[in-house]
Amino acid sequence: MSAVDKAKNKAEELAGQAKEKFGNATDDKDLKNEGKADQVKSNLKDAGEKVKDAFRS
Questions:
Q1: Is there a contact between 32 and 19 (Cβ–Cβ < 8 Å)?
Q2: 35 vs 23: CA distance, rounded Å
Q3: What is the pLDDT of residue 2?
Q4: According to the model, what pLDDT value does residue 55 have?
Q5: Which of 18, 19, 49, 53 might form a disulfide with 35, Cβ 3.0–4.6 angstroms?
Q6: 26, exposed or middle or buried, with CB in 10 Å at 0-12, 13-18, 19+?
């Protein structure tokens, strides 16, 4: 996995965490769920990159 991809995935995960926390603070369920979805998407991308790396080795 390239460092750029790793950084992008981490940034997306952190943005999702921030959205989720802000959604909790403001009682905005849509924003909270959007944050959770961003985190899941980031984790799936990260897992995909790890699979690609495993096949490259």
A1: yes
A2: 8
A3: 77
A4: 87
A5: 19
A6: exposed
Sorted by where each begins, the domain ranges of the chain are: 3-56
Predicted pLDDT at 1: 58
Sole residue written with tokens 């979805």: 37
29-54 confidence digits (pLDDT tens): 999 999 999 999 999 999 988 888 88
Nearest to 35 by CA among 55, 50, 11, 15: 15
Q: Which residue has the tokens 């802000």?
A: 22
pLDDT score at 6: 87
Helix axes 3-26, 29-56, angle to 10 degrees: 160
